[in-house]
Amino acid sequence: MLKKENCYDFKKELLEIHKPNRRNPNRRPKETEYWLSDGLCLLLPTPKSEVIYTAAQDFCDYLLTSMQISARLSYKAEADTELLRIVLNQDLGEAAGTMGYRITTGSNGILLEGYDENGVAQGLYFLEDLMNLAEAPAVAYGTVARKAMFSPRFTQSPFGMFEYNDAALAHMAHLGYDAISLWLKNSTTTLGGRYIDVPLLCRRAARFGIKIYVDLYAPNTVHPSDPEAPSFYDSIYGQLFRDCPDIAGLGLLGEATHFNSRDPKAGKAPLSENHNENIPTGKYSPGWWPCSDYPEWVELIKNTVRRVKPSAEIIFCTYNWGFAPEADRLNLINHLPTDITLMPTWDMFQQIPCGASVEDVVDYSLAFVGPGDYFKSEAIAAKRRGIRLYGEVNSAGRTWDYGTVPYEPMPYQWIKRYEAMQKAHEEWGLCGILECIHYGFHPSLISDLEKWAFFTPSYPLDEVLHKLLVRDFGENADKADKALQLFSEAITYYPPTNEDQYGAFRLGPSYPLWLDSRYLPGDGKMPSPPYAMFGNCIYRGRYTEDVSGFNSLPGNRIYDELRAIEKMDALIGEGIKCLKMTKNPNESLQKLCNLAEFIHCSNVTALHTKQHYILKQRLSVIGSQTEAAGLLDEIEAILVAERENVLAAIPIVQADSRLGWEPSMEYVTDENALQWKLRQLSYEMTYTLPRFRQANALTL
Fold first, then answer.
1. Intra-chain end-to-end CA distance of the chain, in Å
2. What CA–CA distance (Å, rounded) separates 153 from 137?
3. CA–CA separation, 668 vs 525, rounded Å?
4. From the CB of residue 126, how many other CB atoms can be counted at a distance below 10 Å?
């Protein structure tokens, strides 16, 4: 049984890079493998490399912690000493490339050749992976040669927004992430308004082979054609690279820049100014439109930055305008400079079926494998023009489907996405990926599986998954596999709408249900901790219809969405039953079951939210006191059922402090938040329902 945890206990667990005592004492050597033993010496190349030295120290710690073997580092070979020889060698054949390595294992020891410093590090981490699967300090005889399929692989910290301690950097490096996406207002201030020492972070991250890229949230109020534009943009972007010369590159994102476009099809910037006398202009703000003068702006910023740092990479993200007509989007791409990088989003804006309705993938979702038509069109255009292609793929185990979970335990759906990404790499040259945004990543079965997928040659991922399941769940691997198959099918029924991703699914069972939503303090949201970067800004305090024109009318699709969530939750429930049938479940399996039960509670809240909303809408136009009384009784029944759901969620979040937490919001569904939800439901039962019943009873 899982022990009760306090808030943020998961961060203490993250300080542990290597799991203790992975070695199986009953495991015996095979004739086909080499066994490492006490006294092993890692022979390092000269001159000293910090990346190699850091990874080699880590490997020694791994051997001692996980395999009970002592090892040491040396720059000089000694006679009669067991060696793991490490060399740099760019003549590696199929492994020649970024993070490439070749491991040759024979009866006389192991030779690790790295194409570059990161290749050596990844080779050492791969040896750790192999020994974890073997449950022994054993490496099969033969040669393994691999290199990274994608680089950079951008991520953010599992500890929280801008919390880049050495443990965070070590987890990133082990999983193959080699870049951090840092959100800044200027060279010393995070998007959340806190001081950050960027040069020091660059220096510390470099020891792990990780580069720093910056998305700068600064108003770009001067048009690039204006006379003062060169000095204005130098004061922003040139100064950033003068202050932080080790930054590897710059991301340009429409909504972050407030670009002051003169495209007649675009509206005003920022978005809040896009109206005349409080009447919307009907045009999109430049941050949300592929303006025809973006190429001029990108060219100016590129030249400004490269005067300071010639090697700086400029990444232009088209995330914000994937809904725009293809002709406008491709016209923009066709006029961009070719010595930059284009980054469209993998799955957004795709229209997918939900029963008889059409859903739009509003934000990142595992429900749709991808790539979407928007991504395809821009990938093809980038390839035609010779522009380097990255993708915002959210592949590190998290999307916006469930906002407060550590990862989505749907490996077979992830495998489909990874295989589609491999194909995009081959067809369109997809070579860099944004793995997550402000919700970061969490080390998990999924992030391990992803690492195996993104080095080439790739292993069959279903076989890799089976090995990982045996590693994590032992004798219960098959039952866990059955549950994960059900979870993977379940996510295909998820409705990726604004109503849900910014509502009940963002928070989970702490999401409130309001009958009378007028004059709600704080828009009906629970108070947010003052140290949270976004706090309660990125969800809606009440269910609100989204009529975008890209999905079916809410009044039609809400019933299809209800049926889809019911089907999804039924599959989650079947998976939970599989997990609960296991004998002697270890802690990993118990945590997986607990995670699935949290997802179930979130599904129930999402169902109740929609049912509650439908009854509210019917109540407003019912035309009969008798029928209205019946509707109020149904609303009360939903509130009672939701109360039971919240009570069931409390021990679930108590057992895993990572549940209910999201880096930019902090805790929004821990025990305290769920107690807030219980008080909110009590208010509805004590005050709001009686008031509505009193109003319904009035008559002349």
1. 61
2. 29
3. 10
4. 21
One-letter amino acid of 683: Y
Q: The whole model's pTM is what?
A: 0.96
- At residue 431, φ and ψ (nearest 5 deg) are -130, -10
What is the arithmetic mean of pLDDT over 195-208?
98
pLDDT of residue 273: 81
Which CA distances in Å does 378 have to 201, 328, 345, 369, 429? 33, 11, 10, 18, 12
Task: For residue 80, name the pLDDT band (cuts at 50, 70, 90).
Answer: confident
Exposure b/e, 475-491, CB count within 10 A at least 16 = b? ebbebbbbbbbbbbbbb
Measuring CA to CA, which residue among 277, 400, 402, 274 is closest to residue 348? 400
Phi-psi group of 116: left, alpha or beta (phi > 0 → left; psi -120 to 50 → alpha; rest → beta): beta
- Report the alpha-carbon distance of residue 403 to residue 365 in Å, rounded: 11
**Structure tokens belonging to residue 187:** 């060279």
pLDDT in tens, 8-37: 999 999 999 999 999 999 999 999 999 999
DSSP code for 117: H
Q: Give the closest residue to 375 by CA, choosing from 413, 400, 349.
A: 349
Burial of 533 (C-beta count, 10 Å sphere; 0-12/13-18/19+): buried
What value does the mean pLDDT of the chain take?
96
Specify the DSSP element, H or E, that contains 615. helix 587-619
Widest CA span in the chain: 105
Q: Kindly report which listed range (311-315, 474-478, 527-531) carries the lowest average pLDDT score.
A: 527-531
Q: Which residue has the tokens 């077979």?
A: 412
Distance CA 595, CA 621 (A): 40
Query: What 3-state class would DSSP assign to 86?
Result: strand
User: Is residue 270 over pLDDT 90?
Assistant: no
Contact call for residues 73 and 42 (beta carbons, < 8 A) = yes
> What are the b/e assignments for 155-185, b being 16+ CB within 10 Å?
bbbbbbbbebeebbbbbbbbbbbbbbbbbbb
Residue 222 Cα to chain centre, angstroms: 34
